[in-house]
Amino acid sequence: MKTGLIMEGGAMRGLFTAGVTDVLMEHNITFDGAVGVSAGAAFGCNYKSKQIGRALRYNKTYCRDKRYCSLRSLITTGDLFGADFCYREIPEKLDLFDYDTFCQNPMEFYIVCTNVLTGEAVYKKFEEESQALLCEWMRASASLPLVSRIVEIDGLKLSDGGTADSIPIKFFENLGYEKNVVILTRDKSYYKKEGKLSPLFMKLLLRKYPALVEALGKRTKMYNETLEYISGKEEKGEIFVIRPKDPLPIERIERRPEKLQEAYDIGRTVASSQLDDLKKFLAK
User: Fold this and answer.
1) What pTM does this model have?
2) In percent, how much of the chain has pLDDT > 70?
């Protein structure tokens, strides 16, 4: 029976996921495959490369760096999170990503993006492409509409994976992953509300991509339906869910290192408290 790990996004809430996956690594808990969306991919890749502490370390080090995330970066490059700094300079020079270990780890790894011309999800399976191309796929998955440029890869125009499939549990089930663990970055009481931007304003800003606008309009309904699906399977014991008990004390865009540490520590605490139950679930 194939085991899978599903990691949703949530920008800096992803530090909760990093705390969880670091505990999993410390206890040698592995899976046949993993899929990450947005921050779930950008931080979750460290699970496959077996780099405990890396996601927390570079986020705390550079969260106040204007090259990492700033209005200046948005104005000058079109990306709130600096593409060159985040996806090239950090992994290649400042806090090295262990690409060799990533490749040698037999666990399958998928990244979710949204095709802006169709509004549909694109599920990219890593198959030993170059590190630069891998980072481009992760950048595409985390490219939030309106504050990021469209990323073009292999003839596709891509954006934030959370638009089309925020929590790809059904995707993994359809691939034959029968025993799945889902890491969510919201507490159990959370249900998504409609965004603050008016639909007309969204259509104006993204007028070149009507399918993307349509997908964004469906996102709230899709996300909440997925949460209901997950809750139903969780109650039956068919999946295992790891989530914060309360709303995380962190902003989506967070510049306070102590808050990043706090979200990470909460992830570690929750994962540690569920370890025995998780091992029993995986051993069934």
Assistant:
1) 0.96
2) 99
Contacts by residues 57-65 (CB-CB < 8 Å, ≥ 24 positions apart): 57/95, 58/90, 58/94, 58/95, 59/12, 59/15, 59/260, 60/257, 60/260, 60/261, 61/94, 61/95, 62/90, 62/94, 63/254, 63/255, 63/256, 63/257, 63/260, 64/255, 64/257
Is residue 245 over pLDDT 90?
yes
What are 91-113's pLDDT values in tens digits?
Answer: 999 999 999 999 999 999 999 99
138 within 8 A of 14, measured Cβ to Cβ: no
Inter-axis angle of helices 257-273 and 275-283, nearest 10: 50
CB-based contact 166:219 (threshold 8 Å): yes
Q: Assign 227 to helix, strand or coil.
A: helix
pLDDT confidence of residue 9: 94
Phi, psi (rounded to 5 degrees) for 179 = -120, 100
151-153 and 156-160 strand pairing: antiparallel
- To which residue do tokens 């339906």 refer? 225
3-state SS, residue 28: coil
CA distance 124 to 134: 10
